[in-house]
Amino acid sequence: MVHFHSDREIDLHLTARAIRRFQDHLTGSAAVRLVRDSQWVTLHLDGNGDVDLLMTLVSLALQAHQAWPVPGDVPHAECKITNVGPSARESQRRLRGIS
Hints:
Blueprint: E1 2-4, E2 9-13, H1 16-27, E3 32-34, E4 40-44, H2 48-66, H3 88-96
């Protein structure tokens, strides 16, 4: 349900229903990026607020998976790290010229 790609990059598996329900909140966070065609959500941890967000999303994932199966959801899929584009935070840094 959760795995680390590095010290700061974490993937979290949600359900399609949870992603649809919280999509505005997920896409509104610079720490979060949705993985295209997947139920994996990637978080980039930069501070305590991001860790708090991770803990909230882990709780959401546990609750969402306990309610599975839900119409529109599919069984657990492999992480699609190759489909992950730059995060909103990385894009903002590039636009500002910050590395």
